Amino acid sequence: MGIDVIIPVYRPDKKFEKLFAALLAQTLKPDRIILMNTEEEGSTCKDIRKRLNRLMRRQKVYGKKNVEVLITAVKKEDFDHGGTRRMAVRRSHADYFVMMTQDAVPADDYLLERLLLAVKEEGCALAYARQCAPIHATVVEQYTRMFNYPNVSCTKTKADLLRLGIKTYFCSDVCAVYKRSAYEAVGGFVERTIFNEDSIIASRFIDAGYSISYVAEAKVYHSHNYSLAEQFRRNFDLGVSHAQYREIFARVPAEGEGFRLVKNTFSYLVGQKRYLAVLDLLFQSGAKFLGYQLGKRYYAMPHALLLTCSSNAGYFDTVKEICETDFDDGSNSKHKAE
Q: Does residue 141 have a pLDDT over 60?
């Protein structure tokens, strides 16, 4: 059977070391941990290998199973949310593989066991974990995590599209396990995307008749305290991905779900008498909305402005021609699902 863990890394810090140690301590240990490392001075593959070897020597108490670690160098200008993960999957030979980010720390030793149990269900292609905000996260971030990752598990299929809309495709490669047979059946991750590779492949699973499971019992600690500029850029990239894959996202517009999150968060903060946090929410929501709306219209923007608005400027340098494509009806998109 086998299960591998795949993690793109960039300047991995102490939190990544906690993640790595937690993987070694799992009741179900991975066969291989595959790292796709965007190399920087001080964080080369050789540097990371030395750090992890020291950590693994300290972790022998957790069992005798050897976990192979494969580290592959990725040039910064070559990194892509879809293509880099696609490349990593080709380095795995396991029947199941877990996608993670370097800042997601398992909450306990049962994360992989619980995810694997869910994805092995008949017809399930993908199972993703619950993201819990650590205690130092802002109150807005804590509520956002509770909104997107409630404490009740669920399974989503094509029959839920009318009821859930875009939420049907919602999942996260912060921590998610894939069934290889289903992954191969839908063609895998897209080769080029600035963002949202997880929702794009989730839509393929749903359209092909597979189900997606949300496993509330499988938990990781993960959150971000983004600045307004970071929120703007992140949502700009989200808008770009929705424009490039409009044949997916035009069917299930995202704005309604965003407004529902803002409305519910506002009511929660007022009920808690967190009035300063209400101001924070309003400013953050404005930055998100503006970024998303501009991102959806990226093809009409000057190239220099794209580099300023995006958190992944290199993406537009390597695929500059997409900015000149006519997207009036979406028929000429070079990024349609293959």
A: yes
Average pLDDT, the chain: 90
Domain locations in the chain as residue ranges: 3-221, 228-324
Which is more confidently placed, 63 or 200? Answer: 200
| Cβ within 8 Å of residue 111, ≥6 positions away | 22, 26, 129, 175, 218, 219, 220
Helix/strand/coil for 9: strand
Q: Return the SS3 of 99.
A: strand
Residues 24 and 19: their CA atoms lie apart, in Å, by 9
User: Using one digit for the tens of pLDDT, what is the confidence trace for 203-215?
Assistant: 999 999 999 999 9
Q: What is the 3-state secondary structure (H, E, C) of 244-312?
A: HCHHHHCCCCCHHHHHHHHHHHHHHHHHCCCHHHHHHHHHHHHHHHHHHHHHCCHHHCCHHHHHHHCCC
Give 118's DSSP letter. Answer: H
Fold classification of 3-221 is: Spore Coat Polysaccharide Biosynthesis Protein SpsA; Chain A (3.90.550)
The β-bridge relationship of strands 68-74 and 32-38 is parallel
The total of other beta-carbon atoms located within 10 Å of residue 225's CB is 11
- What φ, ψ does residue 59 adopt, rounded to 5°? -95, 10
